[in-house]
Amino acid sequence: MLRLELTRLVRSNRPLLAVLSLALFLGLMLLGFYTYAKTETGGDVEFRYTFENASYFNGLTFALYAFYFGFLLVLPIFAATEGGAQLAGDSASGAFRLLLARPVGRARLFMTKVAVAFASTIVLCAVLLAFALGLGLLGVGFGDLDLYPGVLQMTDHHQHLDQAVALERFAMVLPAASLALFAPLSFAFLISAWSKSPVNAVGTSVAVYLVLYVIAEIHFFEALRPWLFTSHMAYWRELFREEVNWTTFFRDAAKLSGFSLLFLALALHRFRTREEL
Amino acid sequence: MRARGALLELALFVAAALLFALGFGLPEFTPPAFELGPRAPGDVRVMTWNVGGSGSGDEWGGPLRDEHVAHVAEVLRELDPDLCFLQEVRMGLQAEHLLTALGPGWQMEVSGSTGNRRLVAFAQRGSLRSLDFDDRSRRALTVRYEPNGGAPITAVGLHADAASAQRRNEDIGALATALVDRAGDTILLGDFNFDLDLGKRRDLFTDDEYLDVETYNFIATRFLDATLGTGSTAEPDRRLDYIFVRQPAFEVRTAGPIKNRRFGDMDHDPVLADLTR
Amino acid sequence: MTSVDPLPIQLAGVVRKFATRVALDGIDFELEPGRIAGLVGPNGSGKTTLLKLLAGFLKPDAGTLRVFGQDPFRERADVMRRVRFAFAPPALFEELNAREHLVYLAKIGGGSTPSRAEVDEALQTVGLARRASEPVRAFSFGMRQRLGLAQALLPRPDLLILDEPTDGLDPLAVLELREVLRKLRDEHGIAVVLSSHLLIEVEQLVDDMLVLQEGRTVFRGTPSELRRGGERLVLEAEDRGLAREALSARDLRAELRSDGRFELEVGALTLDEAAALLASSGTKLVGFQIEQPSLESALLSKLRESESQA
After folding, report:
1. Partner residue facing B15 (CB), from A156, A248, A261
2. Could you say which residues of chain A have pLDDT below 70?
């Protein structure tokens, strides 16, 4: 069963399209990075007193910024697409009728699909991280990682990590970010378990993710923030502090895992009890 | 087969509940509350305090009320700073009344006015005189404080514009640049009217907030943020008051907001730093 | 199978509704091992709903439905160890080839990997042996239909349920399929349910029939029983005009067919009565026979009868 689903995934064009999209995204990020650096450090700025300078822009800064944007905006869309394709896609194509007419429990079928989709998400996360680091280090340059407060909200004060330490932290980001992406993936499974149309499932999952993400960022909804999974997704940024606050890190990881398993439980309940019309 | 599915579903729900309990149950990270310790010989204690009120009805804030003058003087005597800047002291004779209430041994300098309020500097255990340092004197007060037996300090007390990030950027940027250019031991402190606590304020960045981040970074790359990580200084839970010191002239022994000293409708805490030279 | 083995299919008073529409209304049916049953009816009659109930995709609203004694919705995985389905239109995995379909699907649920010979035989049966390695996304509808059938043959089930299995097959393939199904029934004792609107297929193959219309049972029995219900008395007279007058005078509802013969209800007249009636009106009886209708016309008259009753 697992092999069948993996074979289907590998032979579908989804992974290839995702990797190509990530490559395109990183290319655009690199372009934007240079444009930004040039604008901000060339004196061509609207305000006089800005801190930007070329010295702290390097490959690791690029890798972190690129991964952060990709993680927040691109990978959840792929996760939602995979979730939508796995359940609603098979409902729409009739593939479920083929599978359910075999001696396999619905729960096992469901969990197999979750495992395949999660594996695919981890691979995409690793690809983005590897591409971002490769492009950053080879294309932009080596050096220590310096972070200042900024629009990416990475930190509220200056952080300095030696290159070796920063690379260790990047390695730790892969499992942490993959765990975070499990939440939108599970959410997509939940939507997908209710929908017969993969387009609707993917569209709804992406739309809800973006709405929750925006809500989590707006001060007006501060009271709601702890109860939205999107509020905790970038918890791995904690890894890029000189002193990692592990309590905060694991608290957010536990919340995200709780959200993920809750979505999965609800999706499984729906999948187990629904009729295949 | 069906029973196994139900069991798995139940296990997922239970695991989600446990993870939520863990995630929401783990203690939030809060910086240890700042406690004022005994001052060491040779330390210079500096302080900034916006003594204005939160206002009521249509009035948006307001200067120090006359009936609170005695209280402010009492707090100053209790905290015993060498050099202290107060913002939002009412025009007229309020500053003189404060000086009288403080008693012998205190000196005072005052700024020009913005509306019906102004900045006042008090000092003891040394000499104090104002400097014609910058044409932004209406929002800043520059003094030269020479402690008994110590090297002189140039300090700029500031009450940055509350309404315009651009004006904040220009005022603070110009003052910081001028201070950096000036030889000797320098301090920049006051009510900066921006909050950089990104963990708390995660609004989608407006141009104002973006510029405030730039302004903060501009200072932070030139001065040491003495009260970093010590929590909010003003209602509602915002960090608006800062003490920036030039390194290596000063090391920060202890610094932070002093709680429970507000009176009436005051909405800022006094912020204090013991500096070792 | 043992003598205590429950019947492959047992339906008693099965009702299924979709919102307010009654898709199946009190269906009773039983299928014994080693028999082929035809599930027949016009579009919207409830055939597909019944197949989905048998597959455990849907739950009945009332009545009992058992496949080998088990509820296919609640115990679907157990039921599917003994049952194979081929649905129409065939759902397939576009990413796999024909051989991979058979191998992967046979292994689902702990099944053993089928041997190459078994896979080849199943593909041979449906005429896909030469296309075994081609990706399914390049298959025509007919080839998909064949592959849909092939996957249902492996591993060999105790009950085979086929939805419109000959759709898209060429005449030779239809003949071959028929042979395969007969062989499965006769040599292996497999029960088969065949949903079809092609009566010729049903006529030549099935042992039992369940005819549905608008969710109700119109007929349940063997094809010959269906035909017997539609028998007609056919008379041929020397002079048609005189014969018509005579038959009308006796108030006999006789239809003049295009071949010039009269068709009446069986039992309306005996041979002697018919001869006497025509002789008295100045003509002669030249033909008298009880004619069995085609299955199609028997079915049509059943459907019309059911419609008029409704």
Report:
1. A261
2. 36-56, 151-153, 277
Cis amide prior to C155 (ω within 30 degrees): yes
Do C154 and C114 touch, CB atoms closer than 8 A?
yes
pLDDT in tens, B89-143: 988 889 999 999 999 999 999 887 777 888 999 999 999 998 876 655 568 999 9
- Residue A2 CA, chain-centre distance (Å), reads 23
* Angle value at C-alpha B134, between B132 and B139, nearest 5 degrees: 105
Closest CA in chain B for residue A50: B214
Question: Could you give phi then psi for residue B97, rounded to 5 degrees?
Answer: -60, -35
pLDDT for A43 equals 46
Q: Does A150 touch chain C (CB under 8 A)?
A: no
Largest distance between two CA atoms of chain B = 88
The residue-averaged pLDDT of B172-197 equals: 87
Class of domain B41-276 (CATH, top level): alpha beta
CB environment C214-241: b (16+ within 10 A), e (fewer): bbbbbbbeebeebbeebebbbbbbeeee
Burial class (CB in 10 A: 0-12, 13-18, 19+), A263: buried
pLDDT tens digit sequence for C133-185:
888 888 888 888 889 888 888 888 899 999 988 887 788 878 888 888 888 89
Please report, for chain A, the start and end positions of each structural domain, with discontinuous segments joined by +. Answer: 2-272
Average pLDDT over all residues of chain C = 87
d(CA B176, CA B209): 19
Kind of pairing between the strands at C232-237 and C262-265:
antiparallel
Nearest-CA distance from A105 to chain C in Å? 6
Say yes or no: B202 contacts chain A, CB-CB below 8 A: yes
Question: Helix or strand or coil: residue C218?
Answer: strand
Q: Does B60 touch chain A (CB under 8 A)?
A: no
pLDDT in tens, C89-99: 888 888 899 99
B253: left (phi over 0), alpha (psi -120 to 50) or beta: alpha
